[in-house]
């Protein structure tokens, strides 16, 4: 398995991971006072990030063995795994634009590795 450094030439500056989760009962009832029974799964999601210059995002999925890139602010559905990451950067881009009172400055792009362990 390739490491972040192997793929992108540098170490990540931010790393995070979380277990998988399933709701055995009570999907969408917890916020209205209903009962829920969430359990963790052995699968994990791991994300490694590093800011980079420019507006191009490079993303690699370890599970799929695929690398892709796109421009921040020009996200477009591809109907595949990359849409999840594009959704995050699109929201970031829009929130930055609103915070800067519609003045859209150069937004940092991220190099992202997404991994789901079995």
Describe the structure.
This protein has 118 residues and is α+β, with helices and mostly antiparallel strands. The chain has one domain. Helix content is 19%, strand content 39%. A 5-stranded mixed beta sheet has the order 1-2-5-3-4. A hairpin with a 4-residue loop joins strand 3 and strand 4. The longest helix has 18 residues. It is globular, with a radius of gyration of 17 Å.
The average pLDDT score comes to 76
The number of helical runs is: 2
Q: Work out the number of β strands.
A: 5
Low-confidence stretches: 99-118
Distance from first to last alpha carbon: 14 Å
**Please, how many domains?**
1
Percentage of residues assigned to helices: 10-25%
Helix-strand pattern, N to C?
HEEEEHE
* Major sheet characteristics: 5 strands, mixed
- By secondary-structure content and strand pairing, the structural class works out as alpha+beta
Comma- or semicolon-separated keywords:
19% helix; 118 residues; globular; 2 helices; single chain; 5-stranded mixed beta sheet; alpha+beta
Write the layout of secondary structure elements.
Layout lengths: L3 H5 L5 E10 L14 E15 L3 E6 L4 E6 L10 H18 L9 E9 L1
Parallel strand pairs: 3-5
Antiparallel strand pairs: 1-2, 2-5, 3-4
Short description:
The protein is an alpha+beta fold. The protein is built from two helices and five strands; from the N terminus they run H-E-E-E-E-H-E.
């Amino acid at each position: 398995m390739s490491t972040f450094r192997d793929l992108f030439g540098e170490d990540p500056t931010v790393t995070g991971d979380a277990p998988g989760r399933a709701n055995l009962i009570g999907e969408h009832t917890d916020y209205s006072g209903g009962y829920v029974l969430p359990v963790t799964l052995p699968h994990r999601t791991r994300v490694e990030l590093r800011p980079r210059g420019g507006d191009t995002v490079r993303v690699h999925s370890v599970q799929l063995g695929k690398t892709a890139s796109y421009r921040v602010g020009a996200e477009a559905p591809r109907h595949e795994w990359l849409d999840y990451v594009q959704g995050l950067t699109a929201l970031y881009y829009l929130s930055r634009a609103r915070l800067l009172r519609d003045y859209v400055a150069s937004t940092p792009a991220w190099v992202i590795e997404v991994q789901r362990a079995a």
